[in-house]
Amino acid sequence: SYGIAADLPAVGGNEGVGQVMDTGNSVTSLKPGDWVIPADGGLGTWRTEAVFDEKTLLKIPPDIPLTCAATLGVNPCTAYRMLSDFETLEPGESVIQNAANSGVGQAVIQIAAAKGIKTINVIRDR
Predict the structure, then answer these.
(1) In principle, which of 40, 48, 96, 116 could form an S-S bond with 91, CB 3.0–4.6 Å?
(2) Based on the number of CB atoms within 10 Å of its own CB, is 83 exposed (0-12), middle (13-18) or buried (19 or more)?
């Protein structure tokens, strides 16, 4: 069984980036043309159009590339939890990871560097 059952009908997908096409009269934090990501999981990103309450979306600064913004809600969070929840790593210590060229792997490298943790990064030979 699932930990959190979705109310049906439901749309799958937790990661993604979208562009605001129009807003209602009471919307104050977003405007047409803004790029947004889901504020929480379960929004259902496997679709081309939808209408959402502005509280369910986070505006993305224009200097973040869309390819990065699309995975912002999952990959960096996963990397942070991998570095924080299972071991206590101190500055100067090292962590080794495989799939270092993946979105999560790249986030591990950046977060580890910010914490002073060294990384040993393994990627597959293609």
Answers:
(1) 116
(2) buried
